[in-house]
Amino acid sequence: MAYPRSVNAAEPPQSPVSALEPWPDTVHWQPISTDLIWVELLRLAMGLAVLLVGLALGWAFTGHWLFGAGCAVVLLGGAWRVVTIVRAVRAWGYAERADDLLVRHGLLVRRLSIVPYSRMQFVDVSAGPLERAFDLATVQLHTAAAATDARVPGLRPAEAARLRDRLTALGEDRAEGL
């Protein structure tokens, strides 16, 4: 069983860390804004509206019961997705450490991305129309391997700019020794 590194070498480790626990309690996680829930719910509502209008028109013109059943399935699926969106947004978090950035997310499949500052090539900050309406932005980290890119959605623009600038500075400092 692995033990977390202690900040002070004289201090004993606090508690064991399981290899199966991807979100260690020894890290101070920064949450993202819960306003991202509203952004995701609006995206879901727009998609459901298109599906329901199409199914309702099919039901109105043909009268076939399958269109009505399709509407019911879409509504039930939408209700389930609302619950998962709320939980999924609350599962997002990030932590800045001395040598790397940790990004966590996921409910059923938990995912922890660890991006060393020295491997970052560039950092993007983006905000779509819905995100701008809720005063949110997304920080996207790009590395040499596309599969290791990480993103932190749901940040206030000031926090996104601060994180971008800090990650860029740390990336430049760490890359100089290579």
UniProtKB/TrEMBL annotation:
Q: Does the keyword Metal-binding apply?
A: no
What is any Pfam family matched here?
bPH_2
Name the keywords, alphabetized. Answer: Membrane, Transmembrane, Transmembrane helix
Keyword Membrane present in the record's keywords: the answer is yes
Q: Where are the transmembrane segments?
A: 41-59, 65-83
Q: Which residues form a coiled coil?
A: none
| Originating species | Micromonospora humida
- Please identify the protein, giving its name as recorded: PH domain-containing protein
- Per UniProt, residues of the YdbS-like PH domain are 89-167
Q: Which InterPro entries match?
A: YdbS-like_PH
Show the PANTHER family listed in the entry.
TRANSMEMBRANE PROTEIN-RELATED (PTHR34473:SF3), UPF0699 TRANSMEMBRANE PROTEIN YDBS (PTHR34473)
